[in-house]
Sequence to fold (258 residues):
Amino acid sequence: MNDVFVLDHVSVSYGTTTALRDVSMTIPRGGITSLIGPSGCGKSTLLRTLNRLNDLVAGARLEGTVTFDGADIHSPDTDLVDLRRRVGMVFQKPNPFPKSVYDNVAYGPRLHGSPIDLDGLVERSLVRAGLWDEVTDDLTKPATPLSGGQQQRLVIARCLAVEPEVILMDEPTASLDPVATATIEELTRELSAIYTIVLVTHDLRQAARISDRTAFFAAHAHDDDTRHGELVEYGPTAEIFDSPADERTREYVTGGRD
Fold:
């Protein structure tokens, strides 16, 4: 199966407010799919739909169907713990636990049942996240004094340690300086050879640089000052940026901002 996610007429509401309306799209296995668009267009809502993090929001309601590897993720048979292990999440602000570097990475495997070689798994995850050489001198030191870029790579290592199939990234470089941003972008490209990555970003240059596919969402305004997000255009990144089919996409990628 080439498509890891299939969204069929998906709408998401919070109480009486519709955040995302009637989105149908597929996300193929492997590579990086970027979600772009102005604030309020539903990018993060869509991202959180893919591992049901919206379930944690009071009043959230979904219409339509989301399948992951061919299975409806809202089926009563869905194991949410397993879904969120297989579909990991990296947030905008690095969120290391107030624990050692080692215990941060080991947290998930311990939660799910420690493997025989936990030390090896921690090392492999840190190596894959590009952080091993910077922390190997003392894995027992606390994670919180690490720089922002190091913390974000630690969070990625923590995600990798539970052996996900998909990594969701919600503006993972928004709080980082240009050097740390470049490091995370390079790491993301490397990881996309192994994992399916879905990336929300406000940085159009970032989407153009590293993603294979791009989906542009627009925010549709209503008379009561509310607005909902809708998918405008989705395709290979080069086409979205160089020859978009919709004028709204063209306006956004050639200079439109929030």
Q: What stands out?
A: The radius of gyration is 19 Å. Residues 6 and 224 are 32 Å apart (CA to CA). Strands lie at 3-14, 17-28, 32-36, 60-68, 71-72, 87-90, 166-170, 196-200, 213-221, 227-236.
